[in-house]
Amino acid sequence: MSVAEAGGVFHRARGRTLDAFPAENEREWKGPFYFIQGADPQFGLMKAWSTGNCDSGGDEWQQEVRLTEQAVQAVNRLNPKPKFFVLCGDLIHAMPGTAWRKEQTEDLQRVLRAVDREIPLVLVSGNHDVGNVPTAETIEEFCQTWGDDYFSFWVGGVLFLVLNSQFLYDASRCPALKQAQDRWLDLQLGIAEQRRCQHAVVFQHIPLFLQSIDEDDDYFNLTKSVRKEMADKFTKAGVRAVFSGHYHRNAGGTYQNLDMVVSSAIGCQLGKDTHGLRVVVVTAEKIIHRYYSLDELSEKGIGDDLMDLMKQK
């Protein structure tokens, strides 16, 4: 089943933009708003991790189905509605060309069909979605299934950039595609640098860093040379925050004026955090965020202090 067949809730990114938010209507600041960030539903990882077979395991994913259904229900109940719901990659666990990929994809699409049609979904590619070393073929499969792998969109005067971070990890088998994203990104950052937006925000799967720009290279971050290059590009353009997943734990830090936000997973936890979602409030001056467990968000909703921020003019 393609996303197009999965129902109208999926506003697939096409032509490097998201038609849920016509740019001509969204370039002006209209006051505070919020969105929901999730990451790593990764259907199949909980079973694979529990058996110690992360490469070829993952033949069960009912736990992830239930957790993602809970996440969708929690988001749907929020009032006022979030502007959008972004999933920062690793939508499923099965790598391109491996067993269970089709079934995991179909089950996730079925769950996501329940997202309120007034809450657009923004889908980010992760390493399990396009492969640790992506190819033109794996990128094309992702684009056909979920939409463009990188794109931008405007909401209320804020410019949002979605990146394919696997190009920053290892683009050795698709260098031309990486170069195309690089050229596109430079154009987008030029808009931000000219301060033609209230804020600029980046979504990608792999964090630039987990705590510090100078930390050692790790499976869960980008290499020092790449992260420094990207962080300098972002700060020069005035990007306020980068939101990511991949780590399956909450983490993050700052570099100059850039906030690096690493959110734990909807699905499998690799640390002491709970399955959850991040609420992100955007005001004229700043971006405030808080991670909620699925149970807390389901039962209590968003805290009064965050709600009060959205009432400011």
From TrEMBL:
PANTHER family: METALLOPHOSPHOESTERASE, CALCINEURIN SUPERFAMILY, SERINE_THREONINE-PROTEIN PHOSPHATASE CPPED1. Keywords: Cytoplasm, Hydrolase, Metal-binding. InterPro entries: Calcineurin-like_PHP, Metallo-depent_PP-like, MPP_CSTP1, STPP_CPPED1. This is Serine/threonine-protein phosphatase CPPED1. It catalyses: O-phospho-L-threonyl-[protein] + H2O = L-threonyl-[protein] + phosphate; O-phospho-L-seryl-[protein] + H2O = L-seryl-[protein] + phosphate. The keyword 4Fe-4S does not apply. It is an enzyme of class 3 (hydrolase). Its EC number is 3.1.3.16. The keyword Cytoplasm applies. Its main location: cytoplasm. One of its GO terms (cellular component) is cytosol. GO terms for molecular function: metal ion binding; protein serine/threonine phosphatase activity. Protein phosphatase that dephosphorylates AKT family kinase specifically at 'Ser-473', blocking cell cycle progression and promoting cell apoptosis. May play an inhibitory role in glucose uptake by adipocytes. Its cofactor is a divalent metal cation. Residues 73-249 form the Calcineurin-like phosphoesterase domain. Belongs to the metallophosphoesterase superfamily. CPPED1 family. It comes from the Eukaryota. It comes from Prolemur simus. It is found in: Cytoplasm.
